[in-house]
Write a structure and sequence with these properties.
Helix content is about 80%, strand content about 0%. It contains three helices and two strands, in the order H-E-E-H-H. Strand 1 and strand 2 (about 15-20) form a beta hairpin. Helix 2 (about 20-45) packs across helix 3. The longest helix has about 100 residues, at about 50-150. The radius of gyration is 45 Å and the shape is rod-shaped.
């Protein structure tokens, strides 16, 4: 057994209109035919032709117009579905582009963060290396000066130069 939601989404095969819109489609169709009939009858009667000829003209024109009215109703209500399908398609495409842009931005941000971190690490490493080199030279020089002040020989080689 079908659920109510499945029944309302089902289609009437002849009109290709959703079942829940059949009443609205019929009202639109009836309005089109009714308005056309009013104008047609007034026009044909005002010509002053014999009643039989007037009736034949009205029936002939109404038969033609009923097909046009049916086509317009199908076009209107089918067009609504097409617009919804297109809206969903374009929305999905936009969401895909946005997600792709987010992923690219995330990847770019990570790469920039890594590069920035490496650069900062190099600067910090150089600063620490330079400070360590100065500390070693300062300690060596202090020992050399102390040995010279005490009159002791100083044969310790200097620290290696920075690389």
């Amino acid at each position: 057994m079908k659920k109510d939601s499945e029944r309302t989404e089902a289609r009437v095969s002849l009109l290709t209109v959703r079942l829940r819109w059949v009443v609205a489609a019929f009202i639109v169709y009836a309005l089109e035919v009714g308005v056309y009939a009013c104008f047609l009858i007034r026009h044909e009667v005002s010509k002053g032709k014999p009643p039989m000829e007037t009736t034949q003209s009205i029936i002939s024109y109404m038969g033609d117009f009923m097909g046009v009215a049916l086509g317009s109703v199908v076009f209107i209500f089918g067009g609504i579905d097409i617009m919804m399908i297109l809206r969903d398609y374009f929305r999905a495409q936009r969401e895909k582009r946005v997600e792709q842009a987010r992923a690219e931005a995330r990847t770019k941000g990570k790469a920039e963060g890594r590069a920035e971190g490496k650069a900062e690490g190099r600067v910090e490493g150089r600063a620490e290396g330079t400070a360590e080199t100065y500390r070693q030279w300062n300690a060596w020089n202090t020992r050399r000066l102390d040995a010279a002040a005490n009159g002791q020989p100083f044969h310790e080689p200097p620290p290696p130069p920075p690389q």
